[in-house]
Amino acid sequence: MGRWLALLLACALLAACGDAQTPDAPQASTCTGLAEDAMVWVPGGSFTMGEDPNYPEEGPPRVVAVEGFWMDAHEVTNAQFAAFVAATGYVTMAERTPPALPGAPPEMAQPGSAVFRVPSPDNPAWWRWAVGAQWRDPAGEGAGIAGQERHPVVQIAYEDAAAYARWAGKALPDEAQWEYAARAGAPALPEPVDGEGKPRANYYQGVFPARDLGTDGFISRAPVGCFAANALGLYDMIGNVWEWTSTVGARADAAEPVGVIKGGSFLCAANYCARYRPAARQFQERGLGTDHIGFRLIDMQRPPPPTSQD
């Protein structure tokens, strides 16, 4: 029952949809032709986690050691999740009938999930409960995901991501592993732009939440691999969609267990959130997916790549 109560009480606290691309947006064919199952080796080492914190929950900085592991080169896609559902018949949390919740609006008695909306003077809420919203139809408007096979899957609750991980024989990264991989040996990244000021990630340009100018080519989720990889070869570790980690979080207003999500999303803007930095973190109810949360996996069992001495 917690996820629906939490949405009623605190949906406006979620980190900040539209699904159309701007006219000059890069098409999926111009994005990298990554193999669906591509993984990248992340060699072990130490780093300062939570370095250069912008928000209190990001600190204090501390040195953390991480063992080497393989990580998905990109976020899990709609095509990959569809294969999982076809093989197992899995039903996500957003597709299940919610438990009865006294005082909840009638629509919240039906399967659905949280979808971002641009607020208006008549309705200042940023989020709405969209009946029918789930991974096959992230906005709950019947548009579906045809042609978006290489977009990251969203409307995924923690339980859904964990079920996929078990099926795939992998695991969700913990927060330290995720942040270490996102940094790729570099210092904290202050802005998701390159040295010439051009976007190197799918994030929100403009004044949030009024309008996304889409100068990065997208005003919603982008296909995986449309922006340059980091030094390790990992794509979309900044922006696009938030990603679940296995780390447990805490939030005073949450009515159910909370997890840590990392990486920011296409709804993170410089004037609000700015949590596309590797050190940034946010606390999310584990029972609630949204249209800007996905995941990627790691593999700790697969042997490391051979070295030059092997």
Description:
The chain has 310 residues and is an alpha+beta fold. It has a single domain, classed as paralog of FGE (formylglycine-generating enzyme), CATH 3.90.1580. It contains four helices and eleven strands, in the order αββββαββααβββββ. Strands 9-8-7-10 form a four-stranded mixed beta sheet. It has a three-stranded antiparallel beta sheet with strand order 1-4-11, with no helix packed on it. The longest helix is centred in the first third of the chain and has 11 residues, at 78-88. The protein starts with a helix and ends in an 11-residue tail after the last strand. Residues 1-29 have low confidence and may be disordered.
Please give the order of strands in the largest beta sheet.
9-8-7-10
Specify the CATH homologous superfamily.
paralog of FGE (formylglycine-generating enzyme)
The CATH class: Alpha Beta
Secondary-structure element string: HEEEEHEEHHEEEEE
Oligomer: single chain
The count of β-strands is 11
How confident is the prediction overall: mean pLDDT?
85
Terminus-to-terminus distance: 54 Å
Please count the helical segments. Answer: 4
* CATH domain fold name: paralog of FGE (formylglycine-generating enzyme)
Our estimate of the beta-strand percent is: 15-25%
Which secondary-structure class do the elements indicate?
A: alpha+beta
CATH architectural type: Alpha-Beta Complex
